[in-house]
Amino acid sequence: MYTTDDSQYKIVRYQGHTVKQEIERDEDGEPIYKGGKYALCVVENNNGDICASDGNADTVVVVNKSGRVRSRYDGTPARRKESFNPRHIATDSISQIIVTDIDNACLHILDQNRQFLRCVDNCGLDDPNGLSVDSEGRLWVGLYDSGEVKVIQYMK
Fold first, then answer.
1. Share of the chain above pLDDT 90, in %
2. pTM
3. Pick from 82, 99, 80, 98: which is nearest to 155 by CA?
């Protein structure tokens, strides 16, 4: 959720119509997510971690079930030409985190411990924006400018 002026973001867990948890601030009372023009893209992985790509802060933030920040990923380990610019995010059956990086035309893959594994950048991913993972270990990547969808087999 975010305010109408895009200045504040938070994640809200529901059970039915009842709010069960709100995740907005870290242990020090600081906002976890930065407000701005880009919405958070959020996914929950197999162990209950909530993974959010925050395009306003150019980071991926992972919080545990209780809402405590486990890690922040800023793209540095990938050593790309442009700054990390995350958009969509997905997790797979082994809790890897996959993030589109629209400015570097690639995908960042992090392991279940949130450590950088590799970039997928050799298959014409111009402006990767949409992202989904299917049960057969394929990534479905939407390309913003062309409107194409690329299907990439990345797991065996």
1. 33
2. 0.88
3. 98
